[in-house]
Specification:
single chain, 100 residues, mainly beta, SH3 type barrels, five-stranded antiparallel β-sheet, 5 strands, globular
Length: 100
Amino acid sequence: MRTMDTMLLLAFEDAFLRQRQLRFQYCDSKRTVTSRNVEPQAMLILQPLWYLVAWDPAHEDFRHFRMDRIGRPQVEERATFQRRHVPFEDHVRPVRDLSR
């Protein structure tokens, strides 16, 4: 696991709240680096890993990106989007109930 880019959380928050696309470099598990433009929809935290859940217009599908593999995030000012229903929202539950 690598260190998360310090600008990523700020860029995610800005892009998510203003419904702007997020552009970044992504390094997959095989260390192949690709450029991505996505529509950020949610953040999923499964300790110790954090994931960006986004609609990927190039693939016309949802994608999950490990946030420690994202670099050089930038908010695309001109590229807007509508929020989508994230399929896992109804099924993800905490591992344990923290209120007990």
